[in-house]
Specification:
- There is one protein chain.
- The chain is built from 13 helices and nine strands.
- The longest helix is centred in the first third of the chain and has 20 residues, at about 5-20.
- The protein starts with a helix and ends with a helix.
- Strands 1, 2, 3, 4, 5, 6, 7, 8 and 9 form a nine-stranded mixed beta sheet that branches.
- It has about 325 residues and is an alpha/beta fold.
């Protein structure tokens, strides 16, 4: 090989090595210094105007304020399929950090019965928008004033629900099993119809988020409050908790966590930016009071590991009701 040929070969090798070393390695986290450069989509799995949508719209601009580059975070409502369509869309979105979204802890049910295209254990979690604890209340006509009244009634207890594939429906079944009374679920089109049925005496008890039941059970005395699922009794509330009554595991089941996550495989540097922006929102002074007064919800500052534990516990606690969930989803 001549001298010029050798020089040419060395030049080609040098160019090749330069290209190789400068090219990004597949699967390696990207440099996050330029993230984000354009709007971030925030998916909500329900229609505009509901509780999920309202809370997400409150959080989105506050979160945007905490991004290193000021880009908007835009709500995208993708409803249908009991929230499944929106969550499937979030899960299968490009893993580039430009799509985040809401996920309910109750969405483990869809996965358990094979109706989901997502894996709840593979989402990246930014945090929790809020945690909604539940209240069980009785019709005045039922005669139920306390937990022991249900245990001693010796008859089927008519439980108003929005369907057995919902957390309130499962709550009715689980409470009967763990506390010790027979349950006959009566399905209604929604929580308002079920609560009105209880007020009329058509059903004996209902279980729904505290903020939903409080108006009829506390404010107007149309229903009799029996117990709540808060870890500790809220200040000023003269209603026992399931923990106080000795049903700690049941208390853990009766909580709806409004999670915020991203698709799997987001580059770690971008994920860190998104987490910091979200956590800065819930760390704001007075945010817990806003959740309580404006949204009837409770703050929860859990991070990735804690949320992974919550999700795994949901699978464990719901496993005994897998057949019930499956039949309700047919």
């Amino acid at each position: 090989m001549g001298r010029h040929s050798k020089r040419g070969m060395c030049l080609l090798v040098g160019i090749f090595l330069g290209i190789l070393l400068s090219a990004p390695v597949f699967g390696q986290p990207s440099k996050g210094g330029d993230f984000p450069t354009h709007e971030i989509k925030y998916t909500v799995q329900y229609s505009p105007g509901g509780g999920w949508d309202t809370l997400a719209r409150y959080i989105a601009p506050l979160m945007a304020e905490n991004l290193p580059k000021k880009v908007p975070i835009v709500i995208r409502n993708i409803s249908g399929g009991q929230g499944m369509i929106g969550i499937n869309t979030l899960y299968t979105s490009p893993p580039d950090g430009y799509t985040i979204g809401c996920v309910s802890s109750g969405n483990v049910m869809g996965q358990m019965v094979g109706k989901a295209n997502y894996d709840m254990r593979r989402f990246n979690w930014l945090g929790i928008m809020s945690s909604d604890y539940y209240m069980t209340a009785a019709s005045h006509k039922s005669g139920f004033k306390k937990l022991k009244d249900l245990q001693d009634c010796g008859r089927e207890v008519l439980v108003g629900t929005s369907g057995l594939a919902t957390l309130d429906g499962l709550a009715g079944m689980a409470q009967g099993k763990h506390i010790g009374y027979k349950v006959k679920p009566i399905v209604h089109k929604g929580s308002n119809e079920a609560m009105l049925a209880a007020a009329r005496g058509d059903v004996d008890i209902i279980t729904y988020p505290f903020g939903t039941v409080r108006k009829m059970a506390i404010d107007s005395n149309e229903l009799v409050p029996l117990w709540v699922s808060f870890p500790e009794r809220p200040r000023g509330l003269n209603v026992p908790t399931l923990n106080e009554l000795g049903f700690q595991k049941l208390s853990s089941l009766l909580c709806l966590h409004r999670l915020v996550g991203t698709p799997p495989k987001i580059p770690e540097d971008r994920l860190k930016i998104l987490r910091q922006a979200f956590q800065a929102v819930i760390a704001r002074p007075g945010f817990d009071e806003i959740l309580a007064t404006k949204f009837d919800s409770t703050i929860n500052r859990a991070g990735q590991k804690e949320i992974e534990t919550i999700v795994n516990e949901c699978f464990t606690m719901l496993e005994p009701y897998k057949d019930v969930i499956a039949s309700a989803w047919q």
